[in-house]
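Please decode residue identities from the backbone states below.
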């Protein structure tokens, strides 16, 4: 699961909603190297497929000239409140806007990313395996 449990459970209420810049998942791949490469160290090219902002809509999820509308289901609050028989109230994330308070008008979605604002990209990165072949992780700002 990684990350903060509270954020995982209540991300929509703490700003971790869709369309915002949040840290993505780690990228994991298998790399086969020879025994000699593990002993001496090596540098390998690895193909990865990180998720990035859509270039067509710049991550907005909208077609050009389209803007988001206030969600009519929750009136822009991002939550829906239900009153149970005894007067007890229960709130939940709006299922129409997924807690954002805004919706994309029908037909206004970017055709490249289907309104998500993110796409899977292909990249080749150099991975350095240090001498001794210890387990490594590669972290770069570009993905």
């Amino acid at each position: 699961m990684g990350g903060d449990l509270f954020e995982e459970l209540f991300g929509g209420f703490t700003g971790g909603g869709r369309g915002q810049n949040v840290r993505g998942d780690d990228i994991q791949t298998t790399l086969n190297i020879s025994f000699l490469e593990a002993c001496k160290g090596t540098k390998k090219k690895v193909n990865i497929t990180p998720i990035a902002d859509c270039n067509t809509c710049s991550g907005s999820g909208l077609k050009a000239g389209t803007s988001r509308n206030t969600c009519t289901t929750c009136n822009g609050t991002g939550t829906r409140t239900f009153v149970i028989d005894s007067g007890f109230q229960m709130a939940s994330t709006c299922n129409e806007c997924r807690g954002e308070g805004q919706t994309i008008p029908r037909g206004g979605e970017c055709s490249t990313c289907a309104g998500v604002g993110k796409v899977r990209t292909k990249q080749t990165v150099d991975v350095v395996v240090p001498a001794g072949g210890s387990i490594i992780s590669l972290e770069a700002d570009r993905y």
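Observation: The first helix runs from residue 5 to 10.
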